[in-house]
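Newbie here. two chains, one complex. Structure please?
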Amino acid sequence: MNTDLIGSSTKMSVMITEHPELVMLLQRMDIALGFGERSVRDVCARHGVDTDFFILLCNVYSDASYAPREEDVLRISMDGLIPYLRRSHEYYVSKRLTHIQSHLGHIAEQLPQRVAQVFMRFFDDYRREVTAHFSFEENVVFPHITSLQEGQLDTTYHIDTFLQSHENLEDKLGDLLQIVFKYLPEQATGDDAVDVVYDILQLSMDLNRHSLIEEKVMVPYVRHLERSLR
Amino acid sequence: MTRIKVMIVEPSVVITEGLAKVLSEASRIKVLEPVHDATVASERATALRPDVVILNPTLAESPSALLGDYSGPVLALVYQYVEQLRLKRYDAVIDIRESSGTMIDTLIRVAKTVEQGDREATVSYELSKRETDVLIQVAKGLTNKEIADKLNVSPHTVISHRKNIMHKTGIKSVAGLTVYAILNNLIDESFLI
């Protein structure tokens, strides 16, 4: 067992101090701040969140090299999984991307018009692709999981086709970062450019961990359900 | 204009003082504190970071043996007989019997060559002419095969240029490269649908 992993008796405040990025997970599971000296287990119980599920996500999210064993994933209740993923998608699209877009809009105002159009279109295309990817998950993958959970196997979709789709989206966000901090004309590199570089880095990390949750938790779980119903 | 920092490594105080005085006539040259003891030359070069070192070639078999990490140009300071072969290991020779103008010219010429070399080394991070040609075609949406035909090279060459472009710019997607091309005025937006 890796002793660095978060456990149920860890104090919630200690966990957040060591891994501040986990604050994001709290919000997505409707766990309020102000948990005082309570342990992870106690805080989860107060908010009706399954402790083992919460700890699993925290460990995957805070340590990119952590790979939970399949049997550990399978003995944990996954009722919270789809709601968690939906909340994350909503946060990325309505909060982060909207925020980044507004910074980029300010940057574009400093660019010659023809350049500004191409610049903004690059982001619009990226946003459209991310949104399409999320919609696909919500309209195809999640219903597939729900019906599996209800004991029905629909044969039109298999989770094994799910992997790979993330890479392209990560590339584009990386490209945007390179363009903003390396290639914008100097007059367009004020506060907005600096802020947006930071925002993009933060979003890349968040999306990367989100993908890891899907790949290390969702995919093995769904694959198991598919197998057991076949 | 930045001044050329010169470090003289020479045991004779008289020669050092004289040379320092002559070189200091040129406003472009700044003579650093001279080194009389050759055993500390390497340490002093690391600390003072000179642009050019002037070294008495009788002090060492080769300048690199004496100067350690210092990798800039080294001039041989000659006032007695020195084997020609040994002088070949130096970037130039300064003979104390020369006029002050000649000495200064030699020093500035060597320093300039190095400066230019540095500039060329920096340029190599930029895209080469051929890479730029390929980038333009990529940004216009052509496939590797189409680019190969158009530029009269093999598709393999196009792929290798594309790898270099990606490595140098850090941009992986075609859409990203298009933005790069427009920002750098390599293509205009009329190519985009």
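Moderator note: The mean pLDDT of chain B is 87. Chain B touches chain A at residues 169-173, 175-176, 178-180, 182-184, 188-189, 192 (CB under 8 Å). Thread marked as resolved.
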